[in-house]
């Protein structure tokens, strides 16, 4: 299949989507108009908008995790706005526009899938396709003069995710523990170092040891083929759910958490955990 023979959906849907995206770009341009736009939008920069971009991506992930499919279009729209916002600011600066943004991802998708858009065979495993994908990305990094193994791993990623990506890069050149048992040994070592630093008055040293421990935890997750961000999100959701059960049980007793004590709340926590496992 070549780019010229790309399949499309209903042409009316394609046209409608294109029209709405064009309308969004026009709305964003109006909001940024120095004379008639919104003062807040006009004041924004790439740096001030970037945190919102990350936040909107997390809200998309949250809607998916909750299977809130009725909310997902709105959340994806919020994320799309971030792309259009950045593109509009770039257009104003004479750098690029929304067309170049779309062209960049279109070209990347086609070049990274030669087994779909080129002559390569599709008769290979998903694991082999991942290896091929990484080889293509390595070629792209070389073309951008990213010579170091760890070059190009985005600084703005969530820290656990970035840790895994850094570790994966290092592992591709052989810098990795071959067995999970060795990672567990390192985890115990780092935990002991954190305990040793616990009573230190040196907050910077304690922070460093905590970072080392979290980095090894991320590495352990990688060796177990677990996404540490997903695991922590699940743990957060579980904590939120069980603490809500504590609050509900206390409310039934005419109390609030601040009116209780650790022993009572811990017993209610155990009850909530047992109820979930029943």
From TrEMBL:
It catalyses: ATP + H2O = AMP + diphosphate + H(+). One of its GO terms (molecular function) is ATP diphosphatase activity. Residues 44-117, 183-242 form the NTP pyrophosphohydrolase MazG-like domain. InterPro entries: MazG-like_dom, NTP-PPase_MazG-like_C, NTP-PPase_MazG-like_N, NTP_PyrPHydrolase_MazG. GO terms for biological process: dATP catabolic process; dGTP catabolic process; dTTP catabolic process; dUTP catabolic process; response to stress; TTP catabolic process; UTP catabolic process. Keywords: Hydrolase. Its EC number is 3.6.1.8. Gene3D superfamilies: MazG-like. NCBIfam families: mazG, PRK09562.1. Belongs to the nucleoside triphosphate pyrophosphohydrolase family. This is Nucleoside triphosphate pyrophosphohydrolase. It comes from Paracoccus suum. The lineage of its organism: Bacteria, Pseudomonadati, Pseudomonadota, Alphaproteobacteria, Rhodobacterales.
């Amino acid at each position: 299949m070549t780019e010229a023979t790309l399949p499309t959906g209903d042409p009316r849907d394609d046209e409608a989507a294109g029209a709405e995206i064009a309308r969004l770009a026009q709305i964003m341009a109006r909001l940024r108009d120095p004379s008639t736009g919104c003062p807040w939008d006009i004041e924004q920069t790439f740096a001030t908008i970037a945190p919102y971009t990350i936040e909107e991506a997390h809200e998309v992930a949250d809607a998916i995790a909750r299977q809130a499919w009725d909310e997902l279009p709105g959340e994806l729209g919020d994320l799309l706005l971030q792309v259009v916002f950045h593109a509009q600011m770039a257009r104003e600066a004479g750098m690029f526009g929304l067309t170049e943004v779309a062209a960049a991802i279109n070209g990347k998708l086609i070049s990274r899938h030669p087994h779909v858009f080129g002559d390569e065979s599709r008769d290979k495993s998903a694991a082999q396709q991942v290896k091929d994908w990484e080889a293509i990305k390595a070629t792209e990094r070389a073309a951008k003069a990213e010579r170091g193994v760890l070059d190009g791993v985005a600084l703005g990623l969530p820290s656990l995710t970035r840790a895994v990506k850094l570790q994966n890069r290092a592992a591709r050149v052989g810098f990795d523990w071959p067995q999970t048992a060795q990672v567990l040994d390192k985890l115990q070592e780092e935990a002991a170092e954190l305990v040793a630093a616990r009573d230190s008055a040196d907050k910077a040293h304690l922070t460093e040891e905590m970072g080392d421990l979290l980095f090894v935890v991320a590495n352990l997750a990688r060796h177990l083929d677990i996404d540490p961000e997903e695991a922590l999100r699940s743990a957060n959701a579980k904590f939120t759910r069980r603490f809500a059960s504590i609050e509900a049980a206390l409310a039934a007793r005419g109390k609030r958490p601040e009116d209780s004590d650790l022993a009572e709340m811990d017993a209610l926590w155990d009850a909530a955990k047992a109820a979930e496992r029943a």
